[in-house]
Amino acid sequence: MVEAAERTAGATAIVAPTQRPERRLRVGLVVVLAVQAAWVAVLCGRGWFYQDDLGALDVATGRSLDWGYLTEPVNDHLVPGYRLVFWLLEHTSPLAHTSTVVARVVLQSLAVFLLWRLLVLLCGERPGVLVVTALYAVNPLIICNITWLTTAACLVPAQLAAVLAVHHHVRHTVTGRLRDAAYAGLALLLGMCFWEKTAIIGLFLPLLSLGYLTGGPARARIRSVLARWRGWLLTAVPPLLFVVYFVTHHYGGSARGITAGQLGGVVGTAWWHTVGPAMLGGPWTWTSSRGVYVSFTAPPVWVSALAQVLLAALLVAGWRRTRARSLWAWSLPLVSIVVGTGMVALGRYQDYGNLLATTIRYCFDVTFALALGAALALLPSSAAAIAERAGGRDTVPADAPVEDATRSPSTRFARIRAIRVPFPRRSWPALRPRRARALLGVVTAALLVVTLGNAAVSALRFEHRWTQDPTHPYVDRLTREVRAAGPTANLYDTSVSPAVLPAVFGPTMLISRLLGWTGTEVDFDRTDVRLLLADERGNLHPANILPASRGAQPAANLCAIVAHGRGTWRLPLVPTLPGLVNGFLRLEYLQRDPSVLRIYLQTADGHLVAPLAGARTSLPVTLGATLLRVEAPSAVAVVFRSESLANHVCLGHVVVGAPFRPAGR
C-alpha cells in the first residue's frame, strides 16, 4: 500500500525536484485525526460502564490514594496507573460516562498525532507516512479496545508511553542528548504502570539502533550503539526497577510453564485469527459467549488467507524498497507477537488455552509494531537523514559506504533513467514505469478502500454485541423505580444483579454503592418501613425475609439472651445455616437505653464472620428490630458481644434468611 503512495526520495530529487506538498499532507493528517476522533466518540458513546469498570470503582470507593491502594494487584497484575484512573473517576463523578469518552477521544487523537511525528522523524514527511498513520488510526484492534473503559484505561496511556519512548530513543541515538535517553526510560516505566507488556518496547530499541539509526558495516554499527552506553543505562534503569518490584513482591502468581508446542499454537492462532486479519481491517466477524459482551475474533477463512497474501506482498515490497534492511523492520511485529503472546500465555494459557489469542486486548500493542515496521520497511530513509530531521549530528561514520535510500531498487532505476537524456520526453521507456506506478496506485487505492470498509464493518459488528450489555438499562430502570417509589423508598441492600456484575467480581458490590454513585437518595434495610427488593432487571417489588435458620429460643421466654454489662453470648442457629447469597440477619430487641453491640456469625470451625457493614451495631430505640447484611459459607450460631457495663438488652427473635417477593408479584 505504502509503496505506491509516493515516489522515492532519490527519484524525486533527480527527475522532478519539486517542493514537497507538506501543506496537503498536514491537511490530510487533520482529516485523519478528525475522522478517527468522530469514529471513537460515536462507538464509545454508544456503550457504557461494564463489569470490570464497576469492580474497579468499587475497590476505589472509600480508599485513600496511597501506595497500598496503587499497588494492590488487579488479578495478579501490577498496574498502579489503572488504579489511579479509577480512583480519580470515583472521587470526581463515578458514572459520568461522557467525560470518559471525551478523555479517550483526546488521548487517542494525541497518540495518533505522536505516532505521525515519530514516523516523520524516521521516514520524512511523505504520503506513505500519512497512509500508515490513517490505517493505524482506524484499526479495529485499536478502536474496539477503546470502547471499553477498563482496556482503554490501560492501553491508551501505554500506547502514548510506547510512542514517546521510541521517539526519545531515536532522538538520543542521533543527537547524543542524555536527557532523551532518560525520557525514554521514564516513558517505558510509565507505560508499564498501565500495561506491563509495554516492556516489549524496550526490545525494539536495539533493533532500531542497529538497523536504522546507525550506518556503516556491522562492526561500525555495533561500536556506535555501544558508545551510547550511558544512554542505554538511563533508559534501562526505570523499567528494570519496575521488574524488580514486580518480582520481589510476588505479582504474576498465576504464571505457569508452557511447552514450545503450546506457545507455537497460541502465537499461530494470534496471527491467523487476530493480527493478520487486522492488517486488512478485520476480523470482519466475531464470537462471544453468554453473558459476555466483549467479543473474540472469529474471522472467515478467506479474510485470514487474504491476510497471508497481503503479508507476502508487503515482504516483497519491503525487499524491493529497502532490501535486507526491511527484515529489521519486520522483526518488530514479530518480536511483539511472539514475546507479547508468550507473556500472556505464561499466566493465562492453563485457564483459557488458545482463546487468549483471540482476545483483542492482548494483541493491541502489535498494531504499533506493525505500523512502525511497515513504515521502516516501505519508506526508505537513512541514519543521516534521521539525524538531520532530529537536529543532531550524523551517527554514520565518515568512511561508511552510501546506503539506505540509494540502495533501494526503485531509486537505482530512477538514477539510470535520469541518465537517458536522449530519449524523447514521452518515449516508451519513460511511459512504462509511469503506467506501472499508475496501475499500482489504483490497486493500492482499491486495497485501502477495502481495508477501511472492512475496519468499519468489523467495528460496527463488535459494537452490536457490546451495546447489548444490560448494565446501563439496569441502572436506569433501578433509579427510575426508586424515584417512582417516592421519598419513603426503602430497599434491601442486596448485591447488584449478576447479569451486570457476576459473582467473580466479589459479593460485596451492593446496590447501595451503585445508587450512591448515581446520587439517588434512598434508604436501605430499615425495619420500620416496607422493604422493596430489586430483581435482576432493576425492577422493585415488595419482599419479605424467607427464613433459612432461626435462633434457638425457648418458647416461654421473651428474650433469647439478656445482654447485661460486658460479656459474650452465643445463640445457636436451628437448623445450621447453609451458605446464603444476599443473606440478612434480622434481630428484634427490647431495652431501656440505646446501646451498641458487636454481632457475628460463627462458622462450624469457630471462626467469627462480621456482617458486611461491620460487627459494630447500634440499637437506637427502645423496642425495635435491625437488619444486617451477612455473607458466610455456613453458620452454626450468632455471637453477641457487649463492651459497655451500661448495656442491658433483651435480644429476642433472630432470623437469618434471604428476601423473596411473594408469588405472583
TrEMBL record:
Transmembrane region(s): 27-49, 101-122, 129-162, 229-247, 301-320, 327-347, 359-379, 438-460
Protein origin, superkingdom: Bacteria
Keywords tagged on the record: Membrane, Transmembrane, Transmembrane helix
Keyword field contains Transmembrane helix: yes
Annotated protein name in UniProt: Glycosyltransferase RgtA/B/C/D-like domain-containing protein
Organism encoding this protein: Jatrophihabitans endophyticus
Source organism phylogeny: Bacteria, Bacillati, Actinomycetota, Actinomycetes, Jatrophihabitantales
